[in-house]
Amino acid sequence: MTPEEYVEEVLALVERIPPGRVMSYGAVADALAERSGRCSARLVGTIMARHGGGVPWHRVVNSAGRLPPGHEREARARLLAEGVPLRGDLVEMRAAAWSPGQ
DNA sequence: CTAATGACGGACT
DNA sequence: CAGTCCGCCATTA
């Protein structure tokens, strides 16, 4: 599997995240690991940083619910508009976390 | 080829 | 609850 295909897999999954819900980098990595074999949260983060434009990147946050560095303001505004439960600048993962199984 | 580097995560202090 | 420490793994230096 080439890096290019990795990127496509990640972006494809991110596009499936429903509005008002979010996924952590780790969750994306796990869900993708079943198809691609190996993947890590770190790798997903790198991929989003480089090829994240063009997909709802704001629906991907870290496991603690913290928004992506450098885009906090933008992400917060979009999430708020979608009705994602926020506590300060953190996403309430317990309520907003989503997985492809649903 | 080895070393450092992240849009990370979980355990621990 | 905040800060550290270590494992993670493709990419870059």
Automatic annotation (TrEMBL):
GO biological process terms, alphabetically, are:
DNA repair
Looking at the keywords, is rRNA-binding present? Answer: no
Annotated Methylated-DNA-[protein]-cysteine S-methyltransferase DNA binding domain residues = 8-82
Q: Which residues form a coiled coil?
A: none
InterPro entries, alphabetized: ATL_DNA_repair (IPR052520), MethylDNA_cys_MeTrfase_DNA-bd (IPR014048), MethylDNA_cys_MeTrfase_DNAb (IPR036217), WH-like_DNA-bd_sf (IPR036388)
Which CDD domains does the UniProt record give? Answer: ATase
MF-aspect GO terms: catalytic activity
SUPFAM superfamilies, alphabetized: Methylated DNA-protein cysteine methyltransferase, C-terminal domain (SSF46767)
The membrane spanning regions, by residue number, are none
Alphabetized UniProt keyword annotations: DNA damage
Q: Do you know which PANTHER family this protein is assigned to?
A: 6-O-METHYLGUANINE DNA METHYLTRANSFERASE, ALKYLTRANSFERASE-LIKE PROTEIN 1
Annotated protein name in UniProt: O(6)-alkylguanine repair protein YbaZ
